[in-house]
């Protein structure tokens, strides 16, 4: 299952807002369509956002209407600015756009510029595919035998260019016979758990049970879960993790019940400029996402809304951060280096 | 606002499943309609369930078709059994039915039986009205000045015969100028927070902000809340509290952030036969409540569901239990007595 793809200078993406009812792919050569897709969560998940943005930037300089390198650089700058403004928290977005910007720097001709930028976007995608596979293997090694695993939101193939991060770990664990069952938080307000994670797991043949986000406390208190595995949208240098809102309460509950709490993410999710989670900007979503459910208004008029898209889990609650380069543990000093110290 | 009422041997209730879109009252003289209303959460909230069940039992012996006391006792037994089978967790239901059963014991004539049972049902209702008022005053006294309060589900007028338990405390705190703002968890799956609590608070003129249940961790970590106040469906003798699923995670988070966690409930919510929360039966709800949102299927076929209606908050996480007789604190020894020791 590939939710994003690039063929003959055309970007394709599965519109995730239509899942699980409809599997519709869209093709585009317009970076504005890519930006809109990211903003409206048609394409979502930190790694997938980075890849899509890179392809979007590439699209901006492929138009036959561009006369010369100067034109193309202007178009690229504009696209980079628009794409950077789509969503503020997933740092993979900014890493990818930085790489595209650097790849454009030394091109001498329009042809060279195009080739260089497209190659960089493809490289970002290919690296993510490889990262996902390595994360899956590194993470599955941590899971206990015969376990039930709880996850939140969707950190699967839909959220990446490859097999996923948290869900890659879980599905690999299932293939190895370690994971018996997955519990998936439905993940209000946009129900990525019900719509996306349950869809991916049923397609992969992995037994999955859905629960409302606030039922996780009951589940953990009954001893029904032996590991929690989630993805990340941005990781600070001290190991604090920004991820879908609701991750932090899970970490607090897992800690209370002595259940290991694993974060699975590529190195590109680490923000070297953020010393702690306090420095991670948290996106606020539109109030309508809380006030409405499946398009129907549920609350009366005159109510306010608190709708952060993400929360920050402090490093002390995280058992390990699983990356393609290995497994990091407290005090997470290796996050600042280029290679981890752990296994 | 009265969500349940009794006039001239007719029971009236506001159908809460239609809120906030429609305020429709239903009148009935059939206890089976009352049982169905409780089962389908048209009437809900532990105290309101107890009162409605009492009136339902009274309806069962008011039919002109009943020939004699024996007929009426038979009808009453049947009604008590049906009403007891509606929902398993709210202990107020069983307390109320026990009181009705006892009130019927010594009646010598059909007329006396009817008068005694109706009087008992009305007394249960009137006592709840008085309890709510006392709980509101006792609880408001605990709130700090100029605070924001977080609540979960609905423990308001809609959930009781009076001004509510948790929401009674909060609204009284607002009237006293102590509460500035209320944060209300939307409370999946049935959205009692969005549909009912937000509706009650806006009608009372209290500023309210809704949030998804899993955003409470973010809210508390930002220091935006100075007290959490919730209701209870059943309280064990050791102070463990069964309440709407999602209460336990809030208590864990409040504890972590040193925010006081108050439970407001009448004494009738204490189950003298349950020594701890382990002995409280937890209702499982229908999977469709999680799989569907606003009547629309959100999850793919082939997924399982974990859908407890309630969870248990251990006594150690509870700052105080506020009742009509006073405020109880750890180790909650007064729950077993007839009067509390606290202020």
| Sheet/helix structural class of chain A | alpha/beta
CATH superfamily heading of the largest domain in chain A:
Translation initiation factor eif-2b, domain 2
pLDDT averaged over residues of chain A: 96
- Secondary structure tally, helices of chain A: 10
The biggest beta sheet of chain A is recorded as: 7 strands, mixed
Ends of chain A: how far apart? 29 Å
Please report the two chains with the greatest interface, counting residues with C-beta closer than 8 angstroms to the partner's C-beta. Answer: A-B, 57 and 57 residues
The coarse silhouette of chain A is: globular
Strand content of chain A: 15-25%
Strand order of the biggest β-sheet of chain A: 6-5-4-7-10-15-16
CATH topology of the largest domain in chain A: Rossmann fold
Q: Helicity level of chain A, as a percent range?
A: 25-40%
Order of helices and strands of chain A: EEEHHHHHEHEHEHEEEHEHEEEEEE
Radius of gyration of chain A: 20 Å
In the CATH scheme, the class of the largest domain in chain A would be Alpha Beta
Task: List low-pLDDT spans of chain A.
Answer: 339-343
Gross CATH architecture of the largest domain in chain A: 3-Layer(aba) Sandwich
**Oligomeric form of this entry?**
homodimer
Overall structural domain count of chain A: 2
């Amino acid at each position: 299952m590939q939710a994003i793809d690039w063929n003959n200078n055309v970007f394709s993406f599965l519109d995730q807002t239509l899942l699980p009812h409809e599997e519709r792919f869209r093709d585009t050569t317009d970076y504005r369509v890519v930006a809109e897709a990211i903003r409206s969560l048609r394409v979502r998940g930190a790694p997938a956002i980075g890849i899509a943005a890179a392809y979007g930037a590439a699209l901006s300089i492929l138009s036959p209407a561009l006369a010369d390198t100067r034109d193309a650089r202007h178009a690229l700058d504009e696209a980079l600015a628009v794409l950077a403004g789509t969503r503020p928290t997933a740092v993979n977005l900014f890493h990818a756009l930085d790489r595209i910007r650097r790849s454009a720097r030394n091109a001498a001709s329009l042809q060279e510029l195009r080739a260089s930028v497209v190659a960089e976007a493809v490289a970002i995608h290919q690296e993510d595919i490889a990262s996902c596979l390595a994360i899956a293997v590194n993470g599955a090694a941590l899971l206990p035998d015969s376990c039930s695993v709880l996850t939140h939101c969707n950190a699967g193939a839909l959220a990446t260019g490859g097999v996923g991060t948290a869900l890659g770990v879980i599905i690999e664990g299932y293939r190895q016979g370690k994971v018996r069952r997955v519990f998936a938080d439905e993940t209000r307000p946009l129900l990525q758990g019900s719509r996306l994670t349950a869809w991916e797991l049923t397609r992969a043949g992995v037994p999955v049970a859905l629960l409302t986000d606030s039922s996780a406390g009951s589940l953990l208190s009954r001893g029904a879960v032996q590991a929690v595995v989630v993805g990340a949208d941005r990781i600070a240098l001290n190991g604090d993790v920004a991820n879908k809102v609701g991750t932090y309460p899970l970490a607090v509950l897992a800690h209370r019940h002595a259940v290991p709490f694993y974060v699975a993410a590529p190195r590109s999710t680490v923000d070297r400029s953020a010393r702690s989670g306090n420095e991670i900007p948290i996106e606020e979503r539109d109030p309508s996402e809380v006030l409405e459910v499946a398009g129907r208004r549920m609350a009366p008029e005159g109510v306010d809304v608190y709708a952060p898209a993400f929360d920050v889990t402090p490093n002390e609650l995280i058992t390990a951060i699983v990356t393609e380069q290995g497994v990091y543990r407290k005090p997470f000093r290796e996050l600042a280096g280029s290679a981890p110290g752990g296994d």
